Here is the input.
Amino acid sequence: MVSPAPWPSAEAVWAALEGIPDPEIPVVNVVEMGIVREVQVHEGRATITMTPTFSGCPALHTIRESLEHAVRKLGLEAEVRTVLSPPWSTDWISPEAKQRLERYGIAPPKPVGDLIQLEPSPTRCPRCGSLDTTLKNSFGSTLCKSIYVCNTCHEPFEGFKAV
Amino acid sequence: MSPKAQAALIAKLTALADDELILSHRDSEWTGHGPILEEDIALANIAQDELGHASTWLSLRQALDGTDPDRLAFFRDAEEFRCAQLLELPKGDWAFTMLRQYLFDRYELHWLSAATASTYPPVAEAAAKILREERFHLQHTQAWVERLGQGTEESNRRLQAALEGQWGYAQQLFVPLPGEEILVGEGIVPELRRLKEDWLENVTRHLQASGLKLPLPPGYQPHSREHHTEHLWSLLAEMQSVARWDAEARIW
Here is the structure.
């Protein structure tokens, strides 16, 4: 008879972390946002490596606590480390999460490589799908978003900054 | 790292953090008072970013000497701060605030770009991270300088007055700290003198294109970050009041 593994595996920890919503955008979780970089489990202790989205993001504190809480619920001790390198990029947000952002009403971030193009691709209105939109303000309700207005349906909307 | 270089680096990290922290506070004074809602939000975002950057630099210092960032921010007196005087000046009108943010953002962009090549990995990593966020600031404040400079007679006059009040102070951003040459020699931080040429060229071009005249002579230029304007005392009295009210509090 094979005895059960004494501690939850790293896969089990990843699965638990996928249950943590982003505090500011609850339709996506912290794993698919690319915030959790690494999970290691050793002798009843999980070491989670996370990277901040924006340096001044007030949600970081909450995210860190949620990570610790989720790990402890599996019966493991938790250590959460923060790394700055490589710096977080919106390119790490999973394709599924980008689709969910759009359905939620937030234009998903464009590929970061786009920023160096002379004429970056237009931002699509998440409400009506029009590409005739205007950036009104680089800054929005949270550090990660900008404010746009759609020239077709005339509704304002938020778009994720590409960083 | 030699003990001398480490002491110089601790001083430099403190100065970098203090610039961000004090500017952040000045910007935050506009929250709820911005000229229009969108600008109120934008400046609150910028203030929040700068606060995050202050926290980043102080956490690098913490890794070297174990000091608690919150203690440094809220329990130091004015004489112990190492911010440049430009950032202490009262927020003034919208033109004053936008111009200061622009002059500082432009300086920061040059400094951070060069610092990504630091031989001390934590500085290089922090610079790369912060640089990504700062691009949005410069884009925003650069547009405001142009808008105010090319706007109405009144907006141009206010911006020109702001420039006359700030131009000398802004030069202090390029005065190295005592001992900073050790860090430059070891490739830990960029040399300010070289950055100043790029900064001067860029801001001169943009300010002139926005219809402004560079003040001659440039006005009062502070030289030491150990000296502060009287404004820093009242700023700290407000910024630190809550933390000092209950210094033993562990959670806010």
